Amino acid sequence: MEPLRDREHLLTLKVMRLTKPALQFHVPITCEDHDLPEDTFKKSFNALGVVDGLEAFSLGEMLTLPQSFGNIFLGETFTSYINVQNDSNVVAKDIQIKLNIQTEALRHPLPLNSMDENKDLSLPPSENVNEIVSYDVKELGIHVLGCSVSYTSPSGEKLHFKKFFKFQVLKPLEVKTKFFVTEDDEVYIEAQVENITPNPMYLNSVKLDPSSFYYLDDINKSLPESGPNSNGKISYLRPMDVRQYLFRLTPVSPIVDKSDKSACDVGKLDIHWLTSFGEKGRLQTSQLQRMPRDLNDLRITCIELSDAVPIEKLFMVKLAVVNLTSDRIMNLRLILDNSKVQPLLWVGHSGQELGELKPGQSVEVSVCILPVCPGLHVISGLQLLDTFKSKMYAFDKVGQIFVYTMEESPF
Known about the structure:
The chain is an all-beta fold. It has one helix and 31 strands. The strands form eight sheets. Strands 4, 6, 7, 8, 10 and 11 form a six-stranded mixed sheet that branches. Strands 14, 16, 18, 19 and 20 form a five-stranded antiparallel sheet that branches. Strands 12-13-17-15 form a four-stranded antiparallel sheet, with no helix packed on it. 18% of the residues are buried.
């Protein structure tokens, strides 16, 4: 017996993508009441579902079903309706249906919700079985929905056929990031999210899931939740619109080992959005990585420093010196350099011994400064000498302070 051709199979397979409807558009045509058409246009538009009194508005009350397959974007859920019907006048037995999504890299089997793949199904004439399957799209590129149907004819012959439906998954968002790293190893991340779809969307949330090396401070929460430039709870994005978000990450512990590249992993962006009729989408970026920063052997930070001081009055600065090396003990000597003409002069003994400092350890030291010029000034001219290696380290940006001339502080 010759194999049956597709058109001679007892069963037929139909596949349709399920999407939300759209509002019906029309081109408004208006005229004055005394013109020849009078209210003819108004009556015709009412038949099309136009809201009474809003004939000049292009949207009506009626909804239209999709006329094409449409676009599928990364992060959305692909939902399809599967229909298998017996168009013959005999019973088809032992029916089995298998579905899968084939991407460029993997094949993903789709579970059937209303039927058991291991249980054989029989369809009498003119009967059908329906199934709705969903798949969360997580890859870009070409996807193929494969449908396989096998059954047994009344004569006992095992028959099967397959159908394939190809569709392209597009990129919905363009995400760009910038990194700014401070001397204290704090990381500021600026994320720009651009809608590159042809349709508007609503950003439900843009969050950063930090890695285990950092604490997260979401600066966007301090912004107002209303206004034309709001980055509040929901942001409306038209096509090609861009929203900016800012996050601050603080290290859980000081970064000491220069060779530890795992500290460059800062986290992942998790973006949730809604389209016009509430379809949900989600996109999570890969691990964001900042460029490794060349760490100095030593770091000086201000522990106690006033915001403003009066001119020609001594003030004290408390500093912390940290050994950032991973395997070297340092014997440090503090040198105060007043050789350059500067508005802040060091006062005290230059050459103070700080003692030995092991890797990762810190020591605190207090120094006095005399301001001689008003204005905002940078504290500089501080040097540390490692007597073990006879190496000098210069620090010209220790902190900033404002010097005022009034008797009372302006702040």
